[in-house]
Design brief:
Blueprint lengths: L1 H7 L2 E3 L4 E2 H11 L21 H12 L10 H16 L1
Antiparallel strand pairs: 1-2
Helix pairs in contact: 2-3
C-alpha cells in the first residue's frame, strides 16, 4: 500500500519530494565531499530549508559507513516540518 511504501521509503525533502532511498543511492554513487552537494539530487535542501539538518545527518552517516537516514520516520518528519513551518510564520 502507499502508507507502507511511505514508511519504508520516507520523504526527506518535502519541497522536491526527494526520498531517503534516492538520497542514499546518490550518496553511494556520488560520494559527495560535503552535505551541501546533496542538492544535486533533485534539488534536495534548496527549498524551504527544513531538510538540511537531515541531509547533514545522512551525509555524516554515509561518511561513517552507516546506512544514511535509516531512522527517518515519515510521520514524525511530516509533523516536525509542520511545526517548524508554523513557527517560522509567527
Amino acid at each position: 500500500t502507499e502508507d507502507q511504501t511511505s514508511h519504508e521509503d520516507p520523504t526527506v525533502c518535502f519541497c522536491y519530494r526527494v526520498s531517503r532511498a534516492k538520497l542514499a543511492a546518490f550518496l553511494r554513487k556520488q560520494n559527495p565531499v560535503v552535505a551541501s552537494q546533496l542538492s544535486e539530487c533533485d534539488g534536495a535542501g534548496t527549498g524551504c530549508g527544513w531538510c538540511r539538518r537531515l541531509l547533514e545527518d545522512m551525509h555524516a552517516s554515509h561518511l561513517a559507513g552507516e546506512d544514511p537516514g535509516e531512522n527517518v520516520d515519515q510521520q514524525s518528519n511530516e509533523a516536525a516540518r509542520r511545526t517548524w513551518r508554523s513557527a517560522r510564520r509567527s
